[in-house]
């Protein structure tokens, strides 16, 4: 089975690349993945429950990263054994490119193969299941990366935080004009003038 596609992720390319190399993020996005443990910088062990049609099994295997070109592209491959159900293996070439300053286009080319009892369910069902799993992974991955971005504070809150504090006295002075000065009294008359007026 082969498939390709691309997805726009509302996050910078550096953040998307970091998530592609984060075992916790990958575990949460791989369908049916029960554990994903990093054993080397480019290698992880995985346990996943996979069901193809009426056949389901628990697979144990390894996931390997190769052809790393940070933060542009890499190849991720996995192979696991499911006991009597058979085996499953696949890989994907993942590439990133900027789509503006805050968004990334993730492109992928996926191949998958199964053997044993799983191969007996028919090629059409195997292809449909593999495409569904690949689409689910990249959709969940995009959501997980976007969920890690902090929300921007409201513009009003940002402006209030940046404005300098105003003392209460200054605020009062600015809002209320000072009271007018009291009217001045006429100067007192000389004593001689007062006595003459009395005659």
Textual characterization of the structure:
There is one protein chain. It is globular, with a radius of gyration of 37 Å. Helix 2 (23-29) crosses helix 3 (123-147). Residues 150-163, 165-176 and 189-199 have low confidence and may be disordered. The N and C termini lie far apart (131 Å). Helices cover 32% and strands 37% of the residues. It has one domain (2-147): 2-Layer Sandwich (Alpha-D-Glucose-1,6-Bisphosphate, Chain A, domain 4), CATH 3.30.530.20. It has a seven-stranded antiparallel sheet, with helices on one face. With 199 residues, it is of the alpha+beta class. It contains six helices and seven strands.
Question: How much helix is in the residues?
Answer: 25-40%
SSE run: EHHEEEEEEHHHH
What amount of the residues lies in strands? 35-45%
Supply the CATH class: Alpha Beta
Number of domains: 1
Overall body shape: globular
CATH architecture: 2-Layer Sandwich
Q: What is the typical, i.e. mean, pLDDT? A: 79
CATH topology: Alpha-D-Glucose-1,6-Bisphosphate, Chain A, domain 4
What is the number of helical segments per DSSP (H or I, 4+ residues)?
A: 6
Unreliable stretches covering 5 or more consecutive residues? 150-163, 165-176, 189-199
Class from helix and strand fractions: alpha+beta
Please state how the strands of the largest beta sheet are arranged side by side. 1-7-6-5-4-3-2
Number of strands: 7
What is the makeup of the main sheet? 7 strands, antiparallel
Amino- and carboxy-terminal Cα gap: 131 Å
Name the CATH homologous superfamily: START domain
Computed over alpha carbons, the radius of gyration is 37 Å
């Amino acid at each position: 089975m082969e498939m390709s596609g691309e997805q726009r992720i509302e996050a910078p390319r550096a953040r998307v690349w970091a998530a592609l190399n984060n075992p916790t993020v990958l575990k949460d996005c791989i369908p049916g993945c029960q554990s994903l443990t990093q054993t080397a910088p480019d290698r992880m062990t995985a346990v996943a429950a996979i069901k193809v049609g009426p056949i389901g099994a628990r697979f144990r295997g390894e996931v390997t990263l190769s052809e790393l070109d940070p933060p542009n592209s890499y190849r991720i491959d996995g192979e696991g054994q499911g006991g009597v159900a058979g085996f499953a293996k696949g890989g994907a070439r993942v590439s990133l490119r900027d789509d503006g300053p805050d968004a990334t286009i993730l492109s992928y080319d996926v191949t998958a193969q199964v053997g044993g009892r799983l191969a007996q369910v028919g090629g059409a069902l195997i292809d449909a299941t593999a495409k569904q799993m690949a689409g689910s992974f990249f959709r969940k991955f995009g959501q997980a990366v976007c969920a890690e971005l902090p929300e921007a504070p409201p513009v009003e809150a940002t402006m209030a935080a940046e404005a300098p504090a105003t003392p209460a006295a200054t605020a009062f002075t600015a809002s209320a004009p000072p009271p007018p000065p009291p009217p001045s009294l006429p100067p007192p008359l000389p004593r001689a003038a007062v006595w003459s007026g009395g005659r």
